[in-house]
Amino acid sequence: MEKEKATSPEKKAALEAIRSEFTGTDGHSQSRRLLAALARFPINTFEAMRYLDVYHCPARVLQLRKAGHRIFTHWQTVVTEAGVRHRVGLYVLHSGGPT
Prior knowledge:
43% helix, alpha+beta, single chain, four-stranded mixed beta sheet, 4 helices
């Protein structure tokens, strides 16, 4: 389990642009945002919540997997703004896309 480095300003900006492009609070909209982000880089649970407004990332990942996308989960430790350590998923889209 590795400790996450802070999200870069460039990645934050890219995630915020994706959030603006794919609006909506329903599960489908959240899945679309997450898939668009995963196509560019790995995303952890905190990044999905903070920058993509995906508030139950494991459920969205499950939906995408059921749709045929190959998404791998790695574990990492992040430290919140309050200084609390959490173990979260880091999701990576396999470059082959849907199965």
